[in-house]
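re: ur question from yesterday

yeah so i grabbed the chain u mentioned. its 114 aa long if i counted rite. heres the sequnce exactly as i have it in my notes:
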Amino acid sequence: MPNELKFELSEHELEFLHKLHNAQAIREMMEHPGWPLIQYISQTIIERMENQHLEFAGNASRDAYWLSGARLSGARKYAKILMEQLQKEVGILDQKFVPPDGRIELADLDGEVQ
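ran it thru and got these structure tokens back, copy pasting raw so excuse formatting
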């Protein structure tokens, strides 16, 4: 088609589309039947670290015990921040996106029109 409309998206528009695509992929991952297994495994790892920390208490120096506690605390915080970040990323899909009213004029497009 010789008169086909061609345009390029701006960096901002491309970034927004990538963000939507990633959010959809994360949502699909969280809705996958294997997601509870991933959560179970991460919780089991943290529980194992808690048990190691408690068993380590009697045999370790104060500094080594403190380091073990810091490692456990870091793992807990990482898991919490990761889940919060995943929820935040997926939250963008719950927003209402409203197309502009009326007809879009070619002059209003940010990209190049050929």
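noticed a couple things. The chain has one domain: 11-92. also The chain has a mean pLDDT of 85.
anyway ttyl
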